[in-house]
């Protein structure tokens, strides 16, 4: 939400003026405020034009959500700016929306669309277009394809250990988000684009510089924020760049040149995401993208992936993979440093099962305690705190009336902290996920990667990469708190769970 403070105040006045300057807007504004009351949905009285934004700016999204759910229950009507959002944490309702009645809630909320270029990305595309993209891209993330990426990840692991050694030389504390951020960037560059970089040692590499620029703006930029504040006026925001335009152009050019090279090449050695997408491209597709209105799944399938779709999805994979996976790794290292007994147990498991062998796809997924530690970290620090769906028609779910077009947001962090499903929720306790206890977990109360047909497409890649990195680190180091370690770490205010001031730890060489 750092962008919040940058919203020019004149926009707010402009909105107020425009809203009250004609009857339609005035009626709309009044209607907005009574929107949830008329549906019988509890929630805070909306602050005109801002909704819960002041609270988010003050205490962060995660804390605001937690308090709302504690005060109003498992479904709450709120306004993000002027945009109504139904926040839900009831596992039964979540199951209905994400799985059982998926056909009524296929799309993401409107606020995340209307973004040319990204409208071809799988996380944004609606309806039949989404169905086509998802079914075309899913095989790219199959276990076989991900297993083939292991050698690419292994090469990045070598750089990770070397960088960790250099950074911790002389007993210095290491900022873990930067260390793991560099590693995850190296991984996504090689598994996504087939480009080898060493972001820690060569921070000036143009690919690294532009990736960082692109990711610092991220998809929740000023443009999205304005669209949420003033949903009726999205059309006026189309000229505001979504992200650093130069960084975007750089990636478009870089991806295009990789695509050109690959199309000329006869080698079938490439195992990265871009190659897998090129394989799903059909020659005629670029000529048939003009008139897409009303296209159904079958006609999309006939035309194959277009260059624009390959570009948009390559970029989305980069954005979706970076902060999420590096935050997961950062919080695992923190949780292990402050729970040395858990770290001992994990190191013993790794030593016993791997006997100093390198981490691979086949051995890391067999480590039971590692899986428990990763899951518990994802519960306490879910990298994505919220995700949403949009109702395609007026409907009712678990007795709650949901009008067509309403943004239904699943509040992952609040579900993960619900004491009814997770006793003593702030306690880090991997035993919750032990084989004996796993069966007691309430279905749909653990959602780090979402659920149903539109869950995270990159889950397997993220888990492979994270688990390989944890094993590699614990074969070489022990995580220990340093005088600078913030306990517990202060979290950023936005939708991604990130440490606000970094996580500083000592790495004791084993
Ligand atoms: C720890 C790492 C990650 C976490 C916690 C995470 C979490 C999530 C969540 C919560 C969603 C929304 C799911 C839903 O709506 O049900 C999502 C969607 C998505 N994720 Fe991830 N993600 C991670 C890593 C990745 C990676 C590595 C990639 C790609 C390389 C990726 C690509 C995507 C895409 C494309 C979507 C949209 C899927 C769709 O709309 O069909 N994510 N992720």
From TrEMBL:
Q: Name one Pfam family in it.
A: p450
Keywords, A to Z, come to: Endoplasmic reticulum, Heme, Iron, Membrane, Metal-binding, Microsome, Monooxygenase, Oxidoreductase, Transmembrane, Transmembrane helix
Which cellular compartments is it found in?
Endoplasmic reticulum membrane; Microsome membrane
PROSITE patterns, alphabetized: CYTOCHROME_P450
**Obligatory cofactor(s):** heme
Please explain the role this protein plays, according to its UniProt record: Cytochromes P450 are a group of heme-thiolate monooxygenases. They oxidize a variety of structurally unrelated compounds, including steroids, fatty acids, and xenobiotics.
Q: Which family does it belong to?
A: Belongs to the cytochrome P450 family.
**Name of the protein:** Cytochrome P450
Q: Which organism is it from?
A: Sinohyriopsis cumingii (Triangle sail mussel)
């Amino acid at each position: 939400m750092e962008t919040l403070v940058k919203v020019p105040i004149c926009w707010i006045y402009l909105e107020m003026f425009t809203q009250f300057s004609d009857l339609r807007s005035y009626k709309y504004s009044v209607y907005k405020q009574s929107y949830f009351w008329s549906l019988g949905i509890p929630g805070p009285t909306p602050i005109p034009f801002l909704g819960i934004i002041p609270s988010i700016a003050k205490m962060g999204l995660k804390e605001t959500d937690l308090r709302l759910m504690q005060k109003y229950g498992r479904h709450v009507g709120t306004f993000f700016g002027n945009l109504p959002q139904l926040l839900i944490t009831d596992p039964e309702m979540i199951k209905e929306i994400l799985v059982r009645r998926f056909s009524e809630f296929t799309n993401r909320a409107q606020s995340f669309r209307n973004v040319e270029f990204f409208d071809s990305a799988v996380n944004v595309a609606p309806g039949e277009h989404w169905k086509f993209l998802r079914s075309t891209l899913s095989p790219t993330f199959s276990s076989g394809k991900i297993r083939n990426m292991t050698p690419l990840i292994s090469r990045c692991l070598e750089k990770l250990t070397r960088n960790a050694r250099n950074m911790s030389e002389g007993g210095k504390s290491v900022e873990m988000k930067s260390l793991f951020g560099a590693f995850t960037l190296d991984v996504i560059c090689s598994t996504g684009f087939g480009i080898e970089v060493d972001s820690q040692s060569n921070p000036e590499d143009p690919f690294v510089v532009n990736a960082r620029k692109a990711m610092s703006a991220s998809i929740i930029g000023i443009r999205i924020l304005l669209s949420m504040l003033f949903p009726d006026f999205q059309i006026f925001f189309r000229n505001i760049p979504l992200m650093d335009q130069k960084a975007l152009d750089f990636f478009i050019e870089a991806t295009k040149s990789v695509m050109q090279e690959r199309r000329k090449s006869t080698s079938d050695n490439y195992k990265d995401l871009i190659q897998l997408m090129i394989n799903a491209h059909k020659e005629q597709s670029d000529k048939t993208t003009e008139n897409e209105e009303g296209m159904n799944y079958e006609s999309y399938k006939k035309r194959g992936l277009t260059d624009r779709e390959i570009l948009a999805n390559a970029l989305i994979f980069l954005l979706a993979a970076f902060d999420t996976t590096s935050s997961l790794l950062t919080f695992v290292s923190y949780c292990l440093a402050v729970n040395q007994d858990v770290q001992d147990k994990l190191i013993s498991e790794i030593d016993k099962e791997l006997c100093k062998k390198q981490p691979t796809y086949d051995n890391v997924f067999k480590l039971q305690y590692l899986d428990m530690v990763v899951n518990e970290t994802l519960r306490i620090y879910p990298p994505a705190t919220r995700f949403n769906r949009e109702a395609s028609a007026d409907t009712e779910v678990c007795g709650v009336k949901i009008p067509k077009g309403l943004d239904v947001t699943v509040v992952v962090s609040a579900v993960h902290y619900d004491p009814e499903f997770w006793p003593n929720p702030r306690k880090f306790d991997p035993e919750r996920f032990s084989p004996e206890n796993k069966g007691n977990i309430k279905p749909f109360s653990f959602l780090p990667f979402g659920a149903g047909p539109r869950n995270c497409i990159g889950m397997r890649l993220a888990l492979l990469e994270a688990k390989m990195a944890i094993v590699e680190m614990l074969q070489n180091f022990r995580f220990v708190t340093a005088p600078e370690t913030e306990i517990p770490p202060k979290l950023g205010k936005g939708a991604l769970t990130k440490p606000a001031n970094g996580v500083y730890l000592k790495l004791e060489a084993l």
